[in-house]
Design goal:
With 290 residues, the chain is an alpha/beta fold. Helices cover 46% and strands 19% of the residues. It has helices spanning 3-17, 21-25, 46-60, 78-86, 99-108, 148-165, 189-195, 204-211, 224-240, 242-249, 251-270; strands spanning 68-72, 91-96, 113-117, 129-135, 166-179, 215-222, 273-282. Helix 9 runs antiparallel to helix 11 (251-270) and helix 10 crosses helix 11.
Length: 290
């Protein structure tokens, strides 16, 4: 990825995530986890469902035994905090392209955590990791103007790097929204231009093609109904604090997010888009050479 392309990706991330930490705090759960929760039943709250999702990914990589963990797209640091404070992982690195997220995490000074304002395309670790987690970042790797073959090349570069960065026995826990019954050609212009500019979803076929020969899929779950519920929870919480939100970011931004959450919930419920949770293990030992 060229410097210009990397900066373009960073600008797209900042467009969405740097609206303001205070704004997201109005409708996210206490951990500020901005991705699909994992429900177990009707009695779940957003907080308990998000905690279950974080535990799922940390358990998938064996965080309780890990000495080092990489979180690609670390958000406001919910994985980093649990890895270092609850699982006592000595070295936990988080990558983000959002300046406000990076500053938020750095200010918490989680023991052993290092947040970096850096793309995975530029990152060059000095040591390997026992596990890699990436939640909600994969959707931002490809652009709408790229062909399926070009997207697969980007995804394969990601998988190749992750394989090389893992210690023997290490795994990658990946969560991403993906196209389902909806064709990429039918994707919402509103979502691609005003919510997540320059971002395009993968298909499951593109993911598996990109990972072929590099990773085997250990487990695969589709949590689209979990995400429909999660978006509904966010929308409900945003409505309840709408006056505060408008005071923070203005009525236009609030209206845009309300529309985005409504469209997303409908898309997941109808099966137009899905939510994939994949646990992947490398074929053979990874290497730092590519």
């Amino acid at each position: 990825m060229s410097t210009g392309t990397s900066e373009r990706a960073a600008e797209a991330i900042r467009h969405h995530y740097d609206v303001g930490n205070e704004f997201f705090e109005l409708f996210l759960d206490a951990s500020l986890t901005y991705s699909c929760a994992l429900r177990a039943g009707a009695g779940d709250t957003l907080d308990t469902a998000q905690e279950r999702k974080l535990a799922f990914h940390l358990d998938a990589i064996g965080a309780a035994r890990a000495r080092s963990v990489l979180d690609i797209g670390c958000g406001w640091g919910s994985i980093l905090r649990r890895a270092t404070e609850e699982h006592h992982v000595p070295r936990a690195v988080g990558l983000t392209l959002s300046e406000r997220q990076a500053a938020f995490v750095a200010a918490r000074s989680y023991p052993g955590a290092d947040v970096r304002l850096e793309s995975w395309t530029d990152y060059e670790p000095a040591e390997r990791f026992d596990g890699i987690i990436s939640i909600g970042a994969f959707e931002h790797f490809a652009r709408p103007d790229e062909s399926p073959a070009e997207k697969i090349r980007v995804y394969r570069d990601f998988f190749s790097r992750c394989r090389d960065w893992l210690t023997p026995g290490g795994v990658l826990s990946l969560q991403t929204i993906a196209y389902a019954s909806m064709s990429p050609a039918d994707a919402s212009a509103f979502m691609q231009q005003e919510i997540f500019p320059d971002a395009d979803l993968p298909t499951l076929a593109e993911i598996t093609a990109a990972a072929e020969g590099l990773f085997e899929v250990r487990t695969l779950h589709n949590g689209r109904l979990d995400y429909a519920w999660t978006c509904g929870q966010w929308a409900q919480r945003l409505r309840a604090r709408r006056a505060e939100a408008i005071a923070l970011v203005g009525p236009e931004v609030v209206a845009r997010y309300e529309r985005y959450l409504k469209l997303s919930a409908v898309g997941f419920r109808m099966g137009k888009i899905g939510l994939l949770r994949l646990v992947l293990a490398p074929y053979g030992d990874g290497h730092f050479t590519r």
